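Q: Okay, next protein. This is Acyl-[acyl-carrier-protein]--UDP-N-acetylglucosamine O-acyltransferase from Bradyrhizobium canariense. I've checked the sequence twice, so it should be correct. Can you predict the 3D structure?
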Amino acid sequence: MSMIDPTARIEDGAVIGEGTSIGPYCIIGPDVVIGANCKLIAHVHITAQTTIGDGCTIYPFASLGTPPQSLSYRGELTRLQIGQGCTIREQVTMNAGTVAGGGITRVGDRGYFMNCSHVGHDCQVGNDVIFATSATLGGHCEIGDFVFIGGLSAVHQFTRIGSQVMVGGVCGVRGDVIPFGLVNGQYASLEGLNIVGMKRRKFTRERLATVRSFYQKLFHGPGIFSERLAAVQPLAPEDPAIAEILTFIAEAKHRALCLPDGDGNGN
């Protein structure tokens, strides 16, 4: 049985899952679907065609499915999809998609979004991510699984961040970040591999050594970057992480690659 505070406003057409509790002064739009066993603590606003998976907890003053912050938006009814088991803290904002961007913003399972973090329109966010306080995504970003984005960091629109990346605090991320990368600095640069995260994902010492060797050859070997990239292509079968990094680089779309300081040969 769902529990709905009498001060909450639930529009006709909204679907509320079994066991979900909706606290004081929440506002739920007519096209919203909320899964089972969710908890909306108080003052939560959900609109557009927003779908929220089972077992999510949403804290006061979060605003989900609000119109995209895009000058191309003309009032179309677009979508926000949030997976299961997410924790969405105070004043988090997640915008619905735009027609030009496919009409949907997607957020995966088990994400932890700290207060004031933001997911822009048409972003595709993976599973098990952590966004620290005020971490911000511009529109159309692609974020892999197990990514950590530090507090007050912002990711430029159309930027891709590969799986298991760690972004430090107060970073401006303007380029695509390879899977397993570690980036830091005011204008984020690649500092190395996210070794702590890789260990948490059960990388063995042998695998770490293999991927580290590949990383050194690609980013710190002799010659320009394009030459080094061509030279390391045969290393893809040595480890799935190497193959993933090379595939990520090959699939570049809009942004240049985030590189270590001092290497301007990324294009």
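A: Here is a summary of the prediction. Residues 31 and 99 are 17 Å apart (CA to CA). The chain has four helices and 28 strands.
Q: Noted. On to the next one.
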